[in-house]
From TrEMBL:
SUPFAM superfamilies the UniProt entry points to: Nucleotide cyclase
Protein known as: Adenylate/guanylate cyclase domain-containing protein
Transmembrane regions: none
Domain of life: Bacteria
Region named Disordered: 1-135, 426-454
Location of the Guanylate cyclase domain: 297-406
Species: Streptomyces liliifuscus
GO biological process: cyclic nucleotide biosynthetic process; intracellular signal transduction
Length: 482
C-alpha cells in the first residue's frame, strides 16, 4: 500500500490472489498501538498520582507564561492541557505515520476529556458517600430494610430512568410530603417505579397531571400520619429491651423486620375495604353532581374547657386523655354508620348520609362521655346540607355552620340547624313539634291503633348571631322517650 501526503493509501494484491502486505508491517503497527496504549497509561497514572498528592497539571504549570516577545500569555484552560497531553503522547510515539500521530492525538484528547468527566463523577460519588457517612448506620439499615432497596439514584437520574421530566418528578416528590434533597444519591428502584406508574396513568389518560399530584398528596398525608403513629406506639410499648444492654433504638430493627410484612398486608386490606365502601356510596348517588357536591349531615364534637386542662395536666396525662377521646369517638362513629373525617385533638369531625345516624352518634357521644369521670363535658353541633368532598375532607357552608353551632352549644348538649331538624321530621325520626306528636297519639288511641314512635325530640332555641353566617335559629336535639 502506498501512502500519499494525506496519510491515506491503497493496498496492492499479490499475483497469487492473496492480499498483499502493506509497506508498514502488521507487527510494526501492533507495536505502535502498544506504545500508544502504554503512553496513555503513563498519562493516566501520572494524573492519578497528581490527584492523590493534591497536585494537578494546571497547578504545576504557571498561570501565565511569556511569549517569545516577552508578553504574558493567558493561562491554559483544561482543554488546552488535554491537547498538550495529546501532543506529548504523540511525540512519545515518534516514528509512526502521520495518520497514527493524528489518531494518537485524537485518542489522547478524548481520553483526557473522558478522564476529566470520570474525575468529576468520582468526586460526586465521594461527596455522596461522605454525606451518607454522616448519617446513623442503623438509620440507613432500617431505611434499606423498609424500602427493600439501596440508594442508587439522584433525583435527576431517577426522573431520567422513569422517563419523566425533573419538574414533574419534583412535584410528585413534594406532593408526597418529602423535602427537597438536591442531587444527593438517595432514591431507589422503588422511587423510579412509583414515578413510572404515576406518569403512566397520566399518559394513558386515566388521570390528569393535576389529579395525579392530588393522588400523591392525599396518599402522602394519610400514610405520613399513619407511619408516625405506628412508630410512636410501637416504640412506646418497649419500656424494657428484650435483652440486657440493648437500647430501644437497637431493638427497632428486628421489630420492624417482623412487623413490616404483616402491617403491609393489613394496610392493603383496610385500604381495599375503605375503597369498596366509598365506591358503593358514590354508585348510589342520585346523579353525577351528587358524587362531588353531596347532601350530608356534618357533626363536630368538642371537649369543653380543653384549653384550661392543658395548663394543669401533665403532657403524658393530656396525651392519654386525647387518645381516649379520639378512640371512643372513632369507635362510636364507625359502629353507627358514620365516617370519621378527622380528629383535631379536642375535637372530632364526622359525617353521615342519614340525619338519623348523625343524631344517634351525637347523643351516644354525649352519653358515653358523661359516664366517664375522667372526661370533661362534651358539646356537639350538627348541620345538614350540600357539602363538597375533596381528598377525604369536607368543605362548605354546612361544615362552617356545624362548627359555629358547636361553639354556642351548652355543655352535654347537641345543637342542630333548621335544615337538619326538617330532615329528621321528613324521615319520621322526630315529630314536627311535641304538640303535633300529642295530637297524633290521641288520634291513634281513638282509632285503637299504635301511636307513632319517634327516636328524637327537637326543641327550638332563641335565634343567635354566629360569626360569618349571620343569624341562625338552632334546635336542641334530645332523645325522646315514648
Amino acid at each position: 500500500m502506498t501512502v500519499d501526503d494525506t496519510g491515506s493509501g491503497t493496498g496492492d494484491t499479490a499475483s497469487d490472489g492473496e492480499p498483499g502486505r502493506t509497506t508498514g508491517s502488521v507487527a510494526d503497527t501492533a507495536a505502535a498501538r502498544i506504545d500508544r496504549a502504554e503512553a496513555h497509561a503513563r498519562v493516566e497514572e501520572q494524573d492519578r498520582v497528581d490527584a492523590q498528592d493534591g497536585r494537578t497539571d494546571r497547578a504545576e504549570t504557571p498561570d501565565r507564561t511569556e511569549t517569545p516577545d516577552g508578553a504574558p500569555s493567558a493561562p491554559e484552560t483544561s482543554d488546552q492541557v488535554d491537547r498538550a497531553k495529546a501532543a506529548e503522547a504523540a511525540e512519545t510515539l515518534g516514528g509512526t505515520s502521520t495518520e497514527g500521530r493524528a489518531e494518537t492525538a485524537g485518542r489522547a484528547e478524548t481520553s483526557g476529556r473522558a478522564e476529566a468527566a470520570g474525575r468529576s463523577e468520582r468526586a460526586d460519588r465521594a461527596e455522596a458517600q461522605a454525606a451518607a457517612s454522616e448519617e446513623d448506620p442503623l438509620a440507613l439499615r432500617l431505611e434499606q430494610l423498609i424500602l427493600g432497596a439501596e440508594r442508587r439514584y439522584t433525583p435527576f437520574q431517577a426522573a431520567r430512568s422513569a422517563g419523566v421530566s425533573v419538574e414533574l418528578a419534583t412535584r410528585f416528590w413534594r406532593a408526597m410530603g418529602f423535602a427537597d434533597i438536591g442531587q444527593a444519591k438517595a432514591l431507589t428502584e422503588a422511587d423510579v417505579l412509583a414515578l413510572r406508574r404515576l406518569s403512566g396513568l397520566v399518559e394513558a389518560g386515566l388521570l390528569s397531571e393535576a389529579m395525579a399530584v392530588q393522588v400523591a398528596r392525599s396518599t402522602g398525608q394519610t400514610t405520613a400520619r399513619l407511619a408516625e403513629w405506628q412508630i410512636d406506639s410501637f416504640l412506646e410499648g418497649l419500656t424494657e429491651p428484650p435483652e440486657p444492654g440493648m437500647t430501644r433504638t437497637e431493638v427497632t430493627y428486628p421489630l420492624v423486620e417482623l412487623l413490616l410484612p404483616e402491617l403491609e398486608e393489613f394496610l392493603v386490606y383496610v385500604w381495599r375495604r375503605q375503597l369498596a365502601a366509598a365506591t358503593g356510596r358514590v354508585v348510589q348517588a342520585a346523579d353525577d353532581e351528587e358524587m362531588v357536591d353531596r347532601r350530608l349531615a356534618v357533626g363536630f364534637a368538642d371537649l369543653v374547657g380543653f384549653t384550661r386542662l392543658t395548663r394543669r395536666m401533665e403532657e403524658e396525662e393530656l396525651g392519654e386523655l386525647v387518645e381516649a377521646f379520639e378512640t371512643t369517638a372513632a369507635d362510636l362513629v364507625a359502629a353507627h354508620g358514620g365516617r370519621l373525617i378527622k380528629t383535631l385533638g379536642d375535637e372530632v369531625l364526622y359525617a353521615a348520609d342519614d340525619a338519623g345516624v348523625a343524631a344517634e352518634i351525637a347523643l351516644r357521644l354525649i352519653e358515653t362521655m358523661a359516664g366517664d369521670e375522667t372526661m370533661p363535658e362534651l358539646r356537639v353541633g350538627i348541620a345538614f346540607g350540600t357539602v363538597t368532598t375533596r381528598m377525604g375532607d369536607v368543605f362548605g357552608t354546612t361544615v362552617n355552620l356545624a362548627s359555629r353551632l358547636t361553639s354556642i352549644a351548652p355543655k352535654d348538649a347537641v345543637l342542630v340547624d333548621g335544615a337538619f331538624a326538617e330532615e329528621l321530621t321528613r324521615t319520621g325520626d322526630a315529630p314536627a313539634s311535641e304538640t303535633a306528636a300529642a295530637d297524633e297519639a290521641a288520634a291513634a288511641e281513638k282509632e285503637g291503633e299504635e301511636p307513632p314512635s319517634y327516636r328524637f325530640a327537637l326543641q327550638p332555641m332563641w335565634q343567635r348571631a354566629v360569626r360569618g353566617l349571620g343569624v341562625v335559629e338552632p334546635w336542641q336535639l334530645r332523645r325522646r322517650s315514648n
